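[job 0412] stage=complex_fold ligand=magnesium ion status=START
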Amino acid sequence: MTNTLVKKNNTGKYIAIICLALVYILAILLDNFLPATSFTLMLIPVLQKGAIYALLCVSMNLLNGFTGLFSLGQAGFMLIGGYVYAAITIPAAQHDSVYQYFDSAIRFSIPEILSNVIGKGPGTIVGVIISLIIAGLIAALFAFLIGFPVLRLKSDYLAIATLGFAEIIRAVFQWEGLGAITNGSNQLRKYVTLSGMELNFGSFTLELGTLFLFVIVTVCVALVVLLINSSYGRALKAIRDDEIAAEAMGISLFKHKMISFIISSFFAGVGGALLAMFQTTIQANAFKSAMTYEILLMVVIGGIGSISGSCIASFLYIALSEWILRFLDEGSLFGLISVPFFRDGFRKVVFSVVIMIIVLFFSKGIMGDKEISFKGIGGLLTRLKNKKKKTAPAAEAVSEEGEANE
Amino acid sequence: MSNVLHVENVTMQFGGVVAVNNLSLDIPEGKIVALIGPNGAGKTTAFNCITGVYQPTSGLVEFMGKPMVRSTPKGKMKKQYKGQNKELYSSQSVIDPNPDHITKLGIARTFQNIRLWKSMTVFENVLIAKHMRAKQNVFSAIFRANAKEEKRMREETMALLQEQGLDKFKDELATSLPYGLQRRLEIARALATNPKLLLLDEPAAGMNPQETQELAEFIKQIRDKYNLTIFLIEHHMDLVMKISDYIYVIDFGSKIAEGVPEEIQNNQRVIDAYLGVADDDE
Ligand SMILES: Nc1ncnc2c1ncn2[C@@H]1O[C@H](COP(=O)(O)OP(=O)(O)O)[C@@H](O)[C@H]1O
Ligand SMILES: [Mg+2]
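[job 0412] stage=complex_fold status=DONE, emitting structure tokens
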């Protein structure tokens, strides 16, 4: 009995690992070995952007869905992360050409420094990882500082305060006075992007951009999942369900809200940095509150309080908005029948209607507050297998117990 | 015998309403003490002042002989104050702890209108109350560096649920339980914080006579088993008279009587205050 249980629990793990491995292999294949068709040329950026938004949604869900804090500062923390990342990865020699009107204050590049130590390929990759962590930490530091005044506010006020914070950050980053770091209202560019993630083996270059992104996002999401399933995660959910009861059971509201806010902002910062890598240039003006609303929308579509929902929704949303619905803008149906009202902007109309329908009729989102469980899938497979062996009743009991244990 | 809780001249004024007026009481260790009074008398507000939900306008609360809450009228309240003893604590520093601090010191409570965490199971509801005393920080929790601690929390939770006869419902949503069991669960959750003093706000509300009967036994049992001191608000007079060692009666925020059950039963002021509302099981 116990043996079967252990075995079954591992099945879930194996399935998760196999799925991940498949995704990683696909990423390598797409970047290196599959022929560049119009299909793959669309698929790669959609997968990349989808992964980045998955992280951004998960980070926002931690705060809004699991802690019950209605915060709208996402774009601000992404902006901080993106700018910090860009500023510390622009190669030293490029600073004068990037900071045309300012005397750049940061004259080093972390990936460059590491490249000199351990070689170009690995040095860049490790340097980028360190830079991503620094980007996240600086965003988290800002969260810590503004957390003191804003986390004492009630829900609606918190939303307004964080929204205001994001807008102020956007203005400050465009201010000439900080030009030596932010380049004023000009964009930052020439920093290390996803295409810089590569390893050389003799004359062969292995492109690792997509894989790198997927691995970073998986690690970040896994950390959030670990947090949510820990004692602290349960405390956050208790605060969401009933603050007064949580406080009466010894959970410090301020401390736990702060933890959630800092961790969420850390990952928003990392997500912003990844977005900067993806876009190849970054400009503060683009981080408008509409960006936050878009992420919030994905969170709602996926299900508030569901990590897997957030991930599914972000890929779906990005694929629909950037790719699948594109034909609506192009004047014809499958390139065959020309439809007069399929023209620029019509995609956005259809998209908005789809979203309205989802929000109106499926207000719990795709997943509600449930999660996709690999253990559950494992249990399902075992059950199917066992049914074939005609030992169904015993197996049923075991797998049910396994699910309860989860 | 020492007093676990000592409340001295506590006044709670909301705007112009004095909900608790100059209340003083003592709760000796190991006893069951009741606070009774008509609806709106200020009983729940008194609990909220003791547990840090409200900062009293004025007054002192000591727990285990140490000052835990201390307050004096401030700001606008200096002019508006209608209670007594305005200057009593003005020379001393204000102590205004959050409810979680007070719970950590060893006071746990239940709520008049049950406040269980509704998206969570019976098991999780009790498990979360163990979080406060867990030896871990957020990093060790994320990286599972202290798996023993988590295991201990789960085992203790399971043991507590078994003791309370709630283990068969452990995977059910807390709010799917019948009303009586929800009240039991709320008490179990409070016990999970390892309190010295347990405050129960109308634990028998909504229970039938049979359940109320059982509850009386239950309260005595947990008092003995966990070495508790119990302070409860209750409307069911037979329950109060049966289990209380001492009773305080308040009306319109002020204490109108105190004594052992026989004294209270024969007190004319109490009988007057309760006339017409004696059977109000709300
Ligand atoms: N937060 C508050 N703001 C204003 N008035 C309050 C507040 N809490 C309680 N009161 C008032 O205090 C009085 C006592 O209420 P309460 O303590 O709930 O009574 P009881 O528990 O004895 O039935 C009531 O008149 C109530 O309206
Ligand atoms: Mg009350």
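The first helix of chain A runs from residue 2 to 33.
[job 0412] exit 0
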